[in-house]
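During the second half of the funding period, the structural biology subgroup turned its attention to how the target accommodates small molecules. The most pressing case was iron/sulfur cluster, which had performed well in the primary screen but for which no bound structure existed. We therefore specified the complex as follows and requested a full 3D prediction, including the ligand pose.
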Amino acid sequence: MAQQRARVDAVIVGLGWAGSLMAEELTRAGLTVVALERGAWRDTTTDFPPAVDTDELRWSTRRGMLQPQAVETLTFRNRPDQGALPLRDWNCFQFGWNVGGAGTHWNGMTWRFKPYDFQPHTLTRRRYGDKKLADGLQVQDWGVSYDDLEPFYDRFERLAGTSGKAGNIQGQAQPGGNPFEGPRQRDYPLPPLQRTRACDLFDAGAAKLGLHSFPVPAGNTSGAYVNPLGVHMAPCTYCGYCEFFGCGNWSKSSPQACILPALKRRPNFSVLTQSEVLKVNLAADKKTATGVTFIDAAGRLWEQPADIVVISAYQMDNVRLMLLSGIGKPYDRASGTGVVGRNYAYQTISGASVFFEDEHLNPFIGAGALAQAVDDYNSDNFDHTHHDFIGGANMLIHSTNGRPIGMGGAVPPGTPRWGSDWKKAYRDSYQNSNSVYCQGTSYGHRDVYLDLDPTYTDRHGMPLLRVTFDWNENDARMAHFIADRAVEMGHAMGAKVVSRFEPTAKAFSPMDQLSSHTTGGAVMGADPTTSALNPYLQSWDVHNVFVAGASCFANNGGCNPTGTVAATTLWAAHAIKEQYLKNPGPLVKA
Ligand SMILES: Cc1cc2nc3c(=O)[nH]c(=O)nc-3n(C[C@H](O)[C@H](O)[C@H](O)COP(=O)(O)OP(=O)(O)OC[C@H]3O[C@@H](n4cnc5c(N)ncnc54)[C@H](O)[C@@H]3O)c2cc1C
Ligand code: SF4
């Protein structure tokens, strides 16, 4: 029998970026909010040394900050006719946990999706006609436009202290920025990070090919900064121990550095750590949530009653909690009906490793998001009339770390994997290598989905989430085209050896370390037959449940997701404050 806690206005499930941004908005509006986080408390001053913590084996190789599989894992299969098996290692799937979630140890690339990415169905048909989409693709609009989200992207960049260079301010092109970005109201709050030799080589290659190079927007501070919540951040030291590490320098945008210092001071906010939500409780009519049931570290069950339930437990667990709680109709691949689990997407990755001669790239000088990119082949930024795919990818060079273990595989093709020849090659390539890395779009497909595993369960005996995924034809064709462009770029940069990589040319394996960017499964949209959430991230079926995170993306964009996770969360929070609280009920008629 669960023990009862006092009722609150809102309960938030999971305290990463999405949960802490939602908590900040709702507590500022005066609501009492309790956040339930299944991991432990974790903060800048208590957990990260102020000098650089160089334990690469612990944090990066062994993924010390990621959620242990014993807490929860996924089962995986490529095709619906296969059996799925549980994953025992985190490679492409990387679950954050503890307070701050993956926002603690992310890199900080803080992109906005392109206007096209929110309306791929409408805009593809308008430009190319009805026959452009490959068989089985489930391309659909998000029910929200880039212009709707622009003020919320802007708010996040200010909260996070993003360093970058605008390319388009209110329709006016800005030299040195990304000419393909949607119009923004103003520049980033901080100028771009310092440049490296790798950036210079990339710029030279881009200029030779007539492409438009710009600095990637970074959640690593290029200077001292005070955010709108009054939180002070210090300049990044380019320590190179950023991805998979916490930042003790108050330089990486994270819930800890940017939001929690303000949130902790608010009397109407509280957080219970090591408290795992098992399900959202529904009233008898199944149209209203009454709160959540959670289990604490001592194994005791609790009920937390609340007027509003926000699920912000990361893309995968958002979908799993909806399925475990009976919120929304599960996607059924055979009939093509149902919405929860539909339009799961991963990110297409392709590119080229580049090896120079007599360079000194000094890879140990780096920051999580220090990179130079081109967007000429992303999204619908180029004419697809004569291509057999839609979408595209950004292409970038990354000066992020020169860590000795992680760089060990960056040797030219044909090098032995151990022994004196490997050592010699690694000694040479350490200063001479990098890669042209391309993160691409991915669209929903009828054979790709998430559901509850019929066999395997977690430590509480509840079904694990099952992932059914393989690259679809559109992904593979697009990534092939992009890998060709990356090879061209490598040669234009003057590399002596250019080695193409194209993981989409074979079946997807969850053991490959490609990207951590998973999206969809509880997507937003204007049509309740193809989306689990309305355009305000509100469940179509249970009006006081809002679901925040990349689960709401109807498709993945050709860049990192968190800027868009933040913008959609802040947009939904605005709707809760301005509309829902005045008149609780569905914000959009089904
Ligand atoms: C190594 C790495 C590098 C990355 N780099 C970038 C980058 O450069 N740019 C970018 O845009 N994105 C990047 N990402 C992705 C980015 O970190 C995520 O998009 C973002 O952190 C997601 O935020 P979230 O709040 O949705 O989820 P999370 O940060 O995962 O937070 C969810 C929280 O919910 C908790 N939780 C889960 N289930 C329950 C439950 N049942 N009960 C209670 N609590 C629960 C979890 O413990 C977790 O703390 C990176 C990710 C990784 C792993
Ligand atoms: S690179 Fe900069 S932001 Fe990243 S951990 Fe080091 S000091 Fe912090």
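Two results from this model are relevant to the next phase. The CA atoms of residues 316 and 491 lie 39 Å apart. The chain has twelve helices and 25 strands.
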